[in-house]
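Let's sit down with a protein and look at its sequence and fold side by side. Go ahead whenever you are ready, and we will take it from there.
>
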Amino acid sequence: MGRVSQARAEENRRRVVETASRLFREQGTHVSVADLMKASGLTHGGFYKQFASKEALIDEATAHAFDELTRLRNDGLEQHAGQREAAQQALIDTYLSIEHRDSAADGCPAAALATDMAREPGDREARRVYTEGVSDFAEWLATGDQDGVTRLCTMLGALVLARATKGSPLSEEILTAARAALTATG
């Protein structure tokens, strides 16, 4: 079997990072390398040709997830002709929706990776990227009336609780209450 071209190797790496980003948000960073590679459509043996360790992949996948979040925020700002508060409200409405609650794999990395990052050593790159991503998200959510940390805590807490209570009437009540609180104060 011949060597994989550099372009193919880069494509494979990108596919693994994107797949890991989704799987880690959906299932946590404990997903095995074998399962991750299978989900990527690649062999387990190819993993270590691309990454020094699973931790290195966690670092990269975390950065990828926060890059997606930044693109989403920027797209919203463009869609609302640079009107930050309108873009913020649209993002809040989407964030606190049933669709987002039910789509952890494509959802917010701050909510999905919180417990995994809390277990990471403080000197890990993934933890640094996560902290920076949360800080940037909170800064983006700030308004003249309310700081972004409070808004993010409300959103993130509501999403986590809504996911944990999914299937009960409480789940939708949590999303609705958080949206109302952020609309009233934002």
